[in-house]
UniProtKB/TrEMBL annotation:
Protein's name according to its UniProt entry: Citrate synthase
Stretches of the chain forming a coiled coil according to its record: none
A Pfam family the protein falls into: Citrate_synt
One Gene Ontology MF term: citrate synthase activity
Stated family: Belongs to the citrate synthase family.
Pathway(s) annotated for this protein in UniProt: Carbohydrate metabolism; tricarboxylic acid cycle; isocitrate from oxaloacetate: step 1/2
InterPro entries on file: 2-MeCitrate/Citrate_synth_II, Citrate_synth-like_lrg_a-sub, Citrate_synth-like_sm_a-sub, Citrate_synthase, Citrate_synthase_AS, Citrate_synthase_bac-typ, Citrate_synthase_sf
Organism: Acidithiobacillus sulfuriphilus
Gene Ontology biological process terms, A to Z: carbohydrate metabolic process; tricarboxylic acid cycle
Amino acid sequence: MAEAIYAPGLEGVPVTHSGISHIDGSAGLLEYRGYAIEVLAEHSSYEETALLLLDGELPQATALASFDAGLRAHRRVKYNIRELMKYMPVTGHPMDMLHCAVASLGMFYPQQELSDAERENVPHLDAMAMRIIARIPTIVAMWEQMRYGNDPIPPNPDLGHAANFLYMLSGQEPDPELARILDICLILHAEHTINASTFAVLVSSSTLTNPYHVIAGAIGALAGPLHGGANQKVVEMLTEIGSVERVPGYLDEKLARKEKIWGFGHRVYKTRDPRAGILKGLMERLAARSGLKHTRLFEIAQAVELAAGERLASKGIHANVDFYSGVLYHEMGIKDDLFTPIFAMARSAGWLAHWREQLANNRIFRPTQVYVGRHGKAYVPLAERG
Ligand SMILES: CC(=O)SCCNC(=O)CCNC(=O)[C@H](O)C(C)(C)COP(=O)(O)OP(=O)(O)OC[C@H]1O[C@@H](n2cnc3c(N)ncnc32)[C@H](O)[C@@H]1OP(=O)(O)O
Ligand SMILES: O=C([O-])CC(=O)C(=O)O
């Protein structure tokens, strides 16, 4: 048998057939179910985009209204989840809390795996997906209150997905413009082909485990700084740089030490990530609002993008989605360690679409390895080992 070719990081290796999203990495194009990301960001809502990802088509008005009503009706989590969260250390990262809380949601649904009948029961799978999408924002916002010793703010069924999240974070009904900016951010982060966390979804889905394990595993993968965790790192980096004047020297030192610039580079995009451009535009939209001109970080970010371009663009390294999202959330007054949980909230729709797609044509993932270890070693009793 011919020896299998090992591709580190599975670069260029297809692992599934998928109709959910598509990237053209050299042209900088992204589509969800055939619709350009720019079009969805301008015209759609997170609720509609989530349903598009899950069902494959833009919904009719009645289907969208019923999905939206389902999301609003299922935002609350069981009291025991709140009790569990009470015992988590408030110093812990919210992604660790989210991983644990989402996995625990599955304990209220006794069976650990999906039966054949359940896998073929589309309304059952739809209901599970909708409940997970509805509850992740509640858990994140509950934690934001609980970690400061406050009672969680109950969800408000009169508000849409993004507006309700902002309401639960602060207790204030958000300005519709801020809610729309977050809504667009959620659309932009909802799906992105087979990135690391979505690959984790495929692998765990293929064992027929329950979707709570699937989504908790994906949250764990997203938390890493090379993936979704980079949005928090970007803001830490910009804060450390501190001024526009320090940008070139900071980058030169970092690159000389062979360190990565957070929020730059991508396995698939060899030009600017289209989401980075839209997020930058949203930041400009936010900065233009009176009373919200705290744009020092944004100025540093733009200087970093310019200087990084001079140093890295020839290697195909450009700003990715994580570069401007953290700056935008920071300027919206959101705590830095909530940036990646907000990414997870949004990406739950894409993850669950891939969960459904995997179940519809399942085969367990079981790749191989190139063994580089030893063979046939003689066991030496402990007393005789030198
Ligand atoms: C939602 C998301 O996940 S978007 C990505 C978020 N992650 C980040 O922003 C972290 C910084 N970026 C990176 O670590 C990488 O670019 C990744 C993880 C996104 C992609 O990784 P890979 O495709 O495996 O690229 P890899 O890490 O092998 O880099 C290839 C070359 O580009 C360089 N490079 C890649 N990204 C960067 C960067 N951000 N800063 C400086 N150099 C970089 C590497 O040093 C390497 O150079 P070399 O060939 O001279 O050794
Ligand atoms: O596609 C990737 O590898 C990472 C990414 O941008 C995302 O998950 O949004």
